[in-house]
Amino acid sequence: MKTHDLAFSSRPKPSIATRLLYDSKDVAFIPYGDYWRQGGLGEEVRWSGRREEGCGAFGGAFGAIGVAKGMDEFLEGLVEERMNRYKRENGGSGSGHDSEETQDFVDILLEIQRENAAGSSPVHRDTIKAVLMDMLGGGTDTTATSLVWTMTELLRHPKVMKKLQNEVREIVRGKPNMSEDDLGRMHYLKAMVKEALRIHAPVPLLIARESIQDVRVMGYDIAAGTQVLVNAWAIARDPLMWEDPKELRPERFLNNSMDVKGQDFEFIPFGAGQRGCPGTLFAMNVYELALANVVHSFDLCHPSSQQQEGPILSRREEGRNSSYDR
Ligand code: HEM
């Protein structure tokens, strides 16, 4: 992913991508090439997506093929509804813009489609639907799974939970809402999020890669067209890299620069290199914000840790950590 990044920058084509992602017209399953470089939509979306919110994709998150038809109907409805709204607001002229305040991802995709309609690379409806599928798959299940595992670990480690709550409550104290600045100061929260991602990599084998040329790695000859899986889960638990790898210890991420951005190869929950996850920044923000809000507003504890019966999740009473005080 570093020395041979280009050689492993394609993806194999699983049948799920053919059926659910409109013959791999999304971002995650497009083979390497011009179409991928343009995200199927033009340079602008692909790279602004990488910096901001990604234009997302995800394999494995979708189950039975039978859902394909239902999903297609849902996406058709969504796209149609936006197109009609646009026509209503622009008097059917086909030109003009949605107001930026009300514009969402679907509107932006449709705007790009309109802008490219007369050009040499028109954006097809299937491409829009495939990219939206990416967003749903890449942007929901992964982040939700990560949060669930983090809360599970916090329930198993009440001292870590307490430390985390103290940090969050201290920083947010008295404010109606949490800001991005507040999040930036929550170092223990960030360390906890990374530690949970390390132990429970939400995408354990990343998304399969495919070599685009013959390549030699550590003495092994790998032919062009070989499917390659990277076991990020095992790497993040490797005792040669990590001290007591099975122990939850957020402190290991404090006071060092190790990050999820694909530069530290012992820790790559979002992959690395050209095909690394473009939603990383967005996902981390959502994940941190959601976790900070949960531990700020609720006291969670495992039923077995309570002497008397009580809720697993109780709304915090201001100034009192009810579950732990008991
Ligand atoms: C905790 C949340 C997430 C995790 C753990 C995650 C993980 C991953 C991983 C492991 C890959 C494959 C990287 C590689 O091959 O090196 C990937 C690719 C991708 N992810 Fe994410 N992801 C998350 C959230 C998101 C979000 C929120 C979006 C967009 C909304 C997104 C969009 C994508 C896309 C488009 C790709 C394919 C990139 C390409 O093939 O060029 N992901 N993600």
From TrEMBL:
One of its GO terms (molecular function) is iron ion binding. Residues 304-326 are annotated as: Disordered. Residues 314-326 have a biased composition (Basic and acidic residues). Keywords: Heme, Iron, Metal-binding, Monooxygenase, Oxidoreductase. It comes from the Eukaryota. InterPro entries: Cyt_P450, Cyt_P450_CS, Cyt_P450_E_grp-I, Cyt_P450_sf. Pfam families: p450. Its cofactor is heme. Heme binds at C277. Belongs to the cytochrome P450 family. This is Cytochrome P450.
